[in-house]
Automatic annotation (TrEMBL):
<feature type="transmembrane region" description="Helical">
    <location>
        <begin position="21"/>
        <end position="44"/>
    </location>
</feature>
<feature type="transmembrane region" description="Helical">
    <location>
        <begin position="649"/>
        <end position="671"/>
    </location>
</feature>
<keyword id="KW-0472">Membrane</keyword>
<keyword id="KW-0812">Transmembrane</keyword>
<feature type="transmembrane region" description="Helical">
    <location>
        <begin position="422"/>
        <end position="440"/>
    </location>
</feature>
<dbReference type="InterPro" id="IPR003838">
    <property type="entry name" value="ABC3_permease_C"/>
</dbReference>
<feature type="transmembrane region" description="Helical">
    <location>
        <begin position="310"/>
        <end position="328"/>
    </location>
</feature>
<protein>
    <submittedName>
        <fullName>ABC transporter permease</fullName>
    </submittedName>
</protein>
<keyword id="KW-1133">Transmembrane helix</keyword>
<feature type="transmembrane region" description="Helical">
    <location>
        <begin position="698"/>
        <end position="721"/>
    </location>
</feature>
<dbReference type="Pfam" id="PF02687">
    <property type="entry name" value="FtsX"/>
</dbReference>
<feature type="transmembrane region" description="Helical">
    <location>
        <begin position="250"/>
        <end position="278"/>
    </location>
</feature>
<keyword id="KW-1003">Cell membrane</keyword>
<feature type="domain" description="ABC3 transporter permease C-terminal">
    <location>
        <begin position="649"/>
        <end position="767"/>
    </location>
</feature>
<feature type="transmembrane region" description="Helical">
    <location>
        <begin position="348"/>
        <end position="366"/>
    </location>
</feature>
<feature type="transmembrane region" description="Helical">
    <location>
        <begin position="741"/>
        <end position="765"/>
    </location>
</feature>
<feature type="domain" description="ABC3 transporter permease C-terminal">
    <location>
        <begin position="261"/>
        <end position="358"/>
    </location>
</feature>
């Protein structure tokens, strides 16, 4: 064993560059694998810890307007499936009346409700994940605003409406198990009962959340049907625990999934590098291996000599990678911890990464074993004659006639001759290019306003939200009257939302949110079919189509006001809002059944959108008016910020890979072609010529790899990204790329980096001379 370790140590010293490059590949693979799993572990622990204390409801029905509390209590008593229930009273206050540091929250997308602490469940927690308590004159601010507006404990929030004004001191930053994420468009401020009663006399509108905890084996869908069938108050959105989990998974888990996807790419690249290095090293030592076989050393012992080297390397990389993943994972977990806390169990964030690294190590060691065994299969005669090497490498004869571009012709000829050897390097460069473009394209897609089409919303400049209230129709009519007269408005379309019943594949009745309006003004991209054009047509969201087991051309029966309505499914679109289960059809909802209106509009060319929004907010003060680009930023801003960091890390790592691979490849090639280089010098080729020939070989490979990597990023990358979002209702996604970056800047940077590396790495050729070959 001591002899084996001495051999390994000498081999490490002899091949420092190759060993270092391989070690870096393995360490980065381990860092990303364990880092992604650490983020996942922290997310699971944090969400479990938050939910354990906060006890979120499993079914919530929001409602605006009057209701019969006694009828609600009777309903709860009659249902065996209900474990507990409560009514949360939220005082909704217009954002323009909420002032922080002299500015209102009018530009904010969120709906803000002022609530008191609950007594049974659905508690609002402080930053220590304790049930928050506020006194009169104090306020608990959602963590979303603490992050976006940098609100801190001790700051002052002012509520002002006309002559009435009330100041609150921020005493707590609130974590909300149901409305934490930016993807949840409602936020809750915590105040005392006395302050809520006082505010209700001067401003705001009451909204009620009817919340339920359910017994085991009672699904939220069944609860929703029972609730609606009983005629309980329902002028608002219904939300289930599944939707809460979906929102959290997208908000906090997407980064972990992307990092692990990068890790898989790095592992593949590392395995390819490992395979190439093992084959190249053993090909150079064929004669020595043949001698060892000839004198009777068992093949198993020869294998150990090579296996122990890579086993030591893999284990060292695993340990370093696991330790380095601690700060790496913690950095990308800051948002999760800020919103959810540290969780109830710290063990999972250590165990998951450790399990991942152990599995990774076993996989790489196993691959080393297979590669080494495959290279030891040759006979003693073949090894000592070098026949296998000759057969695999081929030969290239120098051209005998004069050539105009001799360096180019020779370089291409050598590439053609040894294409098997270069094919592996091509694959590694392809993955390196893919590694740059995949996170970049993902980030550009999410950050693009056109991503709204995956949220069931057509691309427009401005959206107007008119939520249910006693003046719902008046607000809608006032908005339409303004838009029709305003010369700076180009086009607009009004949509109303309501609910109908249908049956899923299991025969259970479910309520579907249906939007009625002109779907051709601001069109979506449909997976199948098209938008509804006739009254008997309905378009379904992707998850809804799966749930109802329908495809384009099928018929679906829905129930509205006790009547069965039959629609032909004309199209299927993608939507990640409202649990991904929505529909579009020309259903003439009764006024009392309309949950909300949404108006989408475009301004005319040259009109400043922000100025127009400010004007509209003044004239249409009861409606929520949001520029679509601001809507995207406020909804997905935190995700985009983290994705940008991941993108930057991926670019740096990919370029580092390119440098290390190029150096490693040059060292192996120049060592194996030592005699050929010396002969070229002897017959008149200058050192510059030989360096150019090597550079052409590598740059041609790099160019081809960039081309293939770009195609894969725009095709396979879309499939990978859609797979990540499939549970949210996205089956297929079109990457929204930045052409200048993808097709010009990134390829140029990659080629430049490799070219500089080649210039530096080929300097060793100056030392090669024919006399050295003769002496050998």
């Amino acid at each position: 064993m001591k002899l084996l370790f001495n051999l390994v140590r000498k081999d490490f010293k002899r091949n420092r560059i190759i060993t270092t490059a391989l070690a870096v590949f393995m360490i980065l693979s381990a860092v990303f694998m364990s880092g992604g799993l650490r983020i996942t572990g922290i997310m699971i622990s944090s969400l479990n810890g938050l939910n354990k204390v906060a006890v979120p409801p499993e079914y919530v029905q929001m409602h605006k307007g009057e209701y019969d509390e006694e009828a609600f209590n009777d309903f709860v008593k009659e249902q065996d499936g209900i474990k507990d229930a409560l009514i949360v009273k939220m005082l909704d206050i217009n954002n323009k009346h909420i002032i922080y540091k002299g500015e209102s929250l009018e530009k904010c997308l969120m709906d803000n409700g002022f609530v008191t602490q609950n007594e049974k469940f659905d508690f609002l927690l402080d930053q220590n994940n304790k049930i928050a308590v506020v006194q009169d004159g104090e306020i608990g601010v959602p963590v979303y605003y603490a992050e976006v507006l940098n609100i801190k404990a001790g700051d002052t929030i002012v509520l002002r409406d006309g002559n009435y004004q009330k100041e609150f001191k921020v005493s707590a930053i609130i974590r909300d198990s149901t409305m934490n994420s930016a993807l949840s468009y409602s936020k809750r401020f915590l105040i005392s009962q006395n302050d809520q009663d006082e505010l209700a006399l001067h401003m705001g509108e009451w909204e009620y959340c009817f919340e339920f905890l359910l017994n085991e084996n009672v699904s939220p869908a069944v609860m929703g049907n029972t609730y609606m069938d009983a005629g309980m108050p329902s002028n608002g959105v219904a939300v289930t625990t599944g939707i809460f989990n979906m929102i959290n998974a997208f908000s906090y888990g997407l980064i972990a999934v992307v990092i692990m996807a990068i890790s898989i790419l790095l592992i593949i690249m590392s395995i390819l590098c490992l395979a190439y290095i093992i084959r190249a090293t053993m090909a150079e030592e064929n004669y020595s291996i043949g001698e060892m076989k000839a004198i009777g050393i068992p093949e198993m012992d020869i294998e150990k000599i090579y296996q122990i080297k890579y086993t030591v390397l893999v284990l060292a990389a695993a340990i370093i990678g696991y330790l380095a993943a601690i700060p790496f994972g913690d950095f990308f977990s800051e948002t999760i911890i800020r919103y959810c806390g540290y969780g109830d169990s710290q063990r999972i964030k250590w165990v998951l990464p450790l399990a991942g690294v152990v599995l990774l190590s076993f996989f790489v060691i196993f691959r080393c074993h297979r590669i080494i065994r495959r290279n030891l299969n040759s006979t003693v005669v073949e090894l000592m004659r070098g026949e296998e090497k000759i057969n695999k490498e081929g030969h290239y004869a120098l051209p005998t006639k004069e050539l105009k571009c001799r360096n180019l012709v020779i370089a291409l000829g050598e590439l053609k001759c040894s294409w098997r050897e270069y094919f592996l390097i091509l694959l590694i460069f392809v993955f390196s290019s893919f590694l740059i473009l995949l996170p970049m394209n993902m980030n550009n897609t999410i950050d693009n306003p056109a991503f709204l089409t995956y949220m069931g919303i057509g691309k427009s400049d401005i959206r107007i939200d008119i939520q249910y209230s006693e003046n719902l129709i008046e607000q809608k009519e006032a908005s339409i009257a303004y838009l029709e007269k305003e010369p700076e408005i180009g086009r607009f379309s009004v949509y109303k939302n309501g609910y109908v019943q249908s049956r899923n594949g299991d025969g259970e009745r479910e309520y579907i949110r249906v939007q009625n309006g002109d779907n051709f003004v601001f069109p979506l991209e449909y997976l199948e079919g098209n938008a509804p054009a006739e009254k008997n047509e309905m378009a379904l969201s992707y998850l809804n189509a799966i749930d109802l087991e329908k495809k384009a051309g099928d018929y679906v029966t829905v129930i509205y006001q006790g009547k069965e309505l039959i629609f032909r499914v004309c199209g299927i679109y993608q939507d990640i809002t409202y649990g991904g289960k929505t529909a579009k059809a020309a259903i003439d909802f009764d006024i009392k059944d309309i949950e909300s209106y949404m108006i989408y509009l475009d301004v005319r060319e040259g009109v400043d959108i922000d100025k127009k929004v400010a004007e509209m907010r003044t004239l249409l003060s009861d409606s929520k008016i949001t520029p679509v680009n601001e809507f995207v930023f406020q909804t997905l801003g935190g995700i985009v910020e983290n994705m940008s960091l991941v993108e930057g890390v991926a670019i740096v790592i990919s370029l580092l890979f390119s440098i290390l691979i190029t150096i490693m490849f040059l060292q192996l090639i120049t060592a194996r072609e030592h005699s050929a280089i010396a002969i070229k010098k002897a017959i008149g080729f200058s050192t510059r010529d030989i360096r150019i020939q090597l550079g052409i070989r590598i740059l041609v490979i790099q160019f081809l790899s960039i081309l293939i990597g770009t195609i894969l990023a725009n095709t396979l990358g879309e499939i990978i990204f859609a797979a990540m979002l499939s549970s949210l209702g996205v089956a297929r996604i079109k990457m929204l790329i930045e052409p200048v970056w993808v097709y010009l800047i990134c390829p140029s940077v990659q080629l430049l980096v490799v070219a500089i590396t080649v210039i530096i790495g080929t300097r060793i050729i100056r030392n090669y001379h024919i006399r050295d070959q003769i002496m050998e």
